[in-house]
Design brief:
Blueprint: E1 2-3, E2 11-14, E3 27-32, E4 43-45, E5 51-54, E6 63-65, E7 67-71, E8 74-77, E9 81-84, E10 90-95, E11 100-101, E12 109-114, E13 125-130, E14 141-143, E15 149-152, E16 161-163, E17 165-169, E18 172-175, E19 179-182
Parallel strand pairs: 1-9, 11-19
Antiparallel strand pairs: 2-5, 3-4, 3-7, 6-9, 7-8, 10-12, 12-15, 13-14, 13-17, 16-19, 17-18
Protein backbone atom coordinates (compact mmCIF):
# COMPACT_ATOMS: atom_id res chain seq x y z
CA UNK A 1 0.00 0.00 0.00
CA UNK A 2 1.28 3.43 -0.95
CA UNK A 3 0.21 7.07 -0.84
CA UNK A 4 -0.67 8.61 -4.21
CA UNK A 5 2.41 10.05 -5.90
CA UNK A 6 4.88 8.30 -3.59
CA UNK A 7 7.35 5.68 -4.80
CA UNK A 8 6.17 2.17 -4.00
CA UNK A 9 8.34 -0.24 -2.05
CA UNK A 10 10.44 -2.40 -4.38
CA UNK A 11 8.35 -4.75 -6.50
CA UNK A 12 10.20 -7.98 -7.31
CA UNK A 13 9.06 -10.38 -10.04
CA UNK A 14 10.76 -13.78 -10.13
CA UNK A 15 11.02 -15.79 -13.36
CA UNK A 16 11.62 -19.55 -13.49
CA UNK A 17 11.49 -22.16 -16.23
CA UNK A 18 9.25 -25.24 -16.13
CA UNK A 19 11.89 -26.99 -13.99
CA UNK A 20 12.07 -24.25 -11.33
CA UNK A 21 15.40 -22.92 -12.62
CA UNK A 22 15.87 -19.17 -12.22
CA UNK A 23 16.14 -17.40 -15.56
CA UNK A 24 18.78 -14.68 -15.79
CA UNK A 25 18.59 -11.80 -18.30
CA UNK A 26 14.88 -12.20 -19.03
CA UNK A 27 12.99 -8.99 -19.81
CA UNK A 28 10.03 -8.52 -17.46
CA UNK A 29 7.38 -5.82 -17.74
CA UNK A 30 4.77 -4.65 -15.25
CA UNK A 31 1.38 -3.04 -15.87
CA UNK A 32 -1.73 -2.52 -13.79
CA UNK A 33 -4.35 -5.20 -14.32
CA UNK A 34 -6.99 -2.57 -15.13
CA UNK A 35 -4.86 -0.30 -17.32
CA UNK A 36 -4.55 2.58 -14.84
CA UNK A 37 -1.49 4.75 -15.37
CA UNK A 38 1.62 3.36 -13.70
CA UNK A 39 4.77 5.52 -13.67
CA UNK A 40 8.40 4.50 -13.37
CA UNK A 41 10.64 2.02 -15.17
CA UNK A 42 8.13 -0.56 -16.39
CA UNK A 43 10.61 -3.07 -17.86
CA UNK A 44 13.60 -4.67 -16.13
CA UNK A 45 15.83 -7.68 -16.81
CA UNK A 46 16.14 -10.47 -14.28
CA UNK A 47 19.37 -10.96 -12.31
CA UNK A 48 21.16 -14.27 -11.64
CA UNK A 49 18.48 -15.15 -9.07
CA UNK A 50 15.74 -14.69 -11.67
CA UNK A 51 14.51 -11.50 -10.02
CA UNK A 52 13.52 -8.33 -11.83
CA UNK A 53 13.37 -5.47 -9.30
CA UNK A 54 11.20 -2.43 -9.97
CA UNK A 55 12.33 0.30 -7.58
CA UNK A 56 10.67 3.47 -8.84
CA UNK A 57 7.00 2.68 -9.51
CA UNK A 58 4.29 5.12 -8.52
CA UNK A 59 0.62 5.85 -9.13
CA UNK A 60 -1.44 8.97 -8.54
CA UNK A 61 -5.03 7.68 -8.75
CA UNK A 62 -6.32 6.38 -5.42
CA UNK A 63 -7.92 2.93 -5.48
CA UNK A 64 -7.31 -0.80 -5.21
CA UNK A 65 -5.04 -2.34 -7.82
CA UNK A 66 -2.97 -5.36 -8.81
CA UNK A 67 0.06 -5.49 -11.06
CA UNK A 68 0.61 -7.91 -13.93
CA UNK A 69 4.17 -9.14 -14.39
CA UNK A 70 4.94 -10.44 -17.89
CA UNK A 71 7.98 -12.39 -19.09
CA UNK A 72 7.74 -13.51 -22.70
CA UNK A 73 4.24 -14.99 -23.11
CA UNK A 74 3.78 -15.82 -19.41
CA UNK A 75 2.19 -13.45 -16.93
CA UNK A 76 0.81 -13.39 -13.43
CA UNK A 77 -1.05 -10.92 -11.24
CA UNK A 78 0.17 -9.63 -7.89
CA UNK A 79 -1.89 -9.46 -4.75
CA UNK A 80 -4.16 -6.43 -4.51
CA UNK A 81 -2.76 -3.25 -2.98
CA UNK A 82 -4.15 0.19 -2.24
CA UNK A 83 -3.12 3.63 -3.38
CA UNK A 84 -4.46 6.09 -0.82
CA UNK A 85 -5.04 9.81 -1.22
CA UNK A 86 -2.15 12.12 -0.40
CA UNK A 87 -2.32 15.09 2.01
CA UNK A 88 -4.99 17.76 1.48
CA UNK A 89 -4.16 20.17 -1.31
CA UNK A 90 -7.51 21.68 -2.26
CA UNK A 91 -10.47 22.67 -0.09
CA UNK A 92 -13.63 23.92 -1.76
CA UNK A 93 -17.18 24.71 -0.72
CA UNK A 94 -19.18 22.37 -2.96
CA UNK A 95 -22.36 23.66 -1.30
CA UNK A 96 -22.03 27.30 -0.30
CA UNK A 97 -23.68 28.76 2.82
CA UNK A 98 -27.11 30.22 2.06
CA UNK A 99 -28.78 33.37 3.35
CA UNK A 100 -30.48 32.52 6.63
CA UNK A 101 -32.59 34.18 9.32
CA UNK A 102 -30.80 34.83 12.62
CA UNK A 103 -31.09 31.85 14.96
CA UNK A 104 -32.33 29.46 12.25
CA UNK A 105 -30.36 26.42 11.15
CA UNK A 106 -28.58 27.05 7.87
CA UNK A 107 -29.10 24.77 4.89
CA UNK A 108 -26.37 22.12 4.68
CA UNK A 109 -22.90 23.50 3.96
CA UNK A 110 -20.59 21.01 2.21
CA UNK A 111 -16.79 21.29 2.08
CA UNK A 112 -14.86 19.02 -0.32
CA UNK A 113 -11.22 18.02 0.21
CA UNK A 114 -8.87 16.68 -2.50
CA UNK A 115 -5.17 15.89 -2.71
CA UNK A 116 -2.77 17.27 -5.33
CA UNK A 117 -3.86 14.51 -7.75
CA UNK A 118 -7.60 15.33 -7.46
CA UNK A 119 -8.31 12.27 -5.29
CA UNK A 120 -11.13 12.78 -2.80
CA UNK A 121 -9.81 12.40 0.74
CA UNK A 122 -11.89 10.23 3.06
CA UNK A 123 -11.80 10.57 6.86
CA UNK A 124 -10.18 14.02 6.83
CA UNK A 125 -11.18 16.38 9.65
CA UNK A 126 -12.58 19.66 8.32
CA UNK A 127 -13.46 22.68 10.44
CA UNK A 128 -15.48 25.79 9.65
CA UNK A 129 -15.26 29.24 11.20
CA UNK A 130 -16.46 32.68 10.18
CA UNK A 131 -13.84 34.72 8.38
CA UNK A 132 -14.25 37.60 10.83
CA UNK A 133 -14.48 35.61 14.06
CA UNK A 134 -18.22 36.14 14.66
CA UNK A 135 -19.83 33.43 16.77
CA UNK A 136 -20.93 30.41 14.74
CA UNK A 137 -22.93 27.68 16.48
CA UNK A 138 -23.33 24.00 15.64
CA UNK A 139 -20.92 21.14 14.99
CA UNK A 140 -17.88 23.02 13.65
CA UNK A 141 -15.75 20.00 12.77
CA UNK A 142 -16.78 17.07 10.57
CA UNK A 143 -14.89 14.24 8.86
CA UNK A 144 -15.09 13.78 5.11
CA UNK A 145 -16.93 10.82 3.60
CA UNK A 146 -15.70 8.60 0.74
CA UNK A 147 -16.53 11.40 -1.73
CA UNK A 148 -14.27 13.81 0.18
CA UNK A 149 -17.28 15.78 1.47
CA UNK A 150 -17.72 17.08 5.01
CA UNK A 151 -21.36 18.06 5.56
CA UNK A 152 -22.23 20.66 8.18
CA UNK A 153 -25.96 20.29 8.86
CA UNK A 154 -26.61 22.26 12.04
CA UNK A 155 -24.84 25.62 11.71
CA UNK A 156 -26.49 28.80 12.89
CA UNK A 157 -25.68 32.42 13.70
CA UNK A 158 -27.61 35.01 15.71
CA UNK A 159 -25.93 38.28 14.70
CA UNK A 160 -27.38 39.82 11.52
CA UNK A 161 -24.83 40.79 8.87
CA UNK A 162 -22.86 39.62 5.84
CA UNK A 163 -20.39 36.82 6.40
CA UNK A 164 -18.20 34.18 4.79
CA UNK A 165 -17.02 30.89 6.23
CA UNK A 166 -13.50 29.48 6.20
CA UNK A 167 -13.20 25.74 5.62
CA UNK A 168 -9.92 24.20 6.85
CA UNK A 169 -8.45 20.72 6.30
CA UNK A 170 -4.96 20.21 7.68
CA UNK A 171 -3.01 23.31 6.69
CA UNK A 172 -5.19 24.14 3.66
CA UNK A 173 -8.16 26.49 3.82
CA UNK A 174 -10.54 28.45 1.64
CA UNK A 175 -13.28 31.04 2.08
CA UNK A 176 -16.87 30.54 1.02
CA UNK A 177 -18.95 33.00 -0.92
CA UNK A 178 -20.56 35.75 1.17
CA UNK A 179 -23.98 35.08 2.68
CA UNK A 180 -26.40 37.13 4.79
CA UNK A 181 -27.86 36.53 8.21
CA UNK A 182 -31.04 38.61 8.39
CA UNK A 183 -32.85 39.75 11.51
CA UNK A 184 -35.45 37.40 12.91
CA UNK A 185 -39.10 38.33 13.56
CA UNK A 186 -39.71 41.07 16.15
CA UNK A 187 -39.58 39.85 19.73
CA UNK A 188 -39.44 43.11 21.69
CA UNK A 189 -40.71 46.66 21.29
CA UNK A 190 -39.35 49.34 23.62
CA UNK A 191 -39.36 53.15 24.10
Amino acid sequence: NTVAGATMANVVVNVKDAYSNNISGQAVSVTTTNGTLLSGTLSQNTNASGNATFNNLSMTLAGTYALTGTAGTVNTASANFNITAAAPSAVTFSTQPANTVAGATMANVVVNVKDAYSNNISGQAVSVTTTNGTLLSGTLSQNTNASGDATFNNLSMTLAGTYALTGTAGTVNTASANFNITAAAPSAVTF
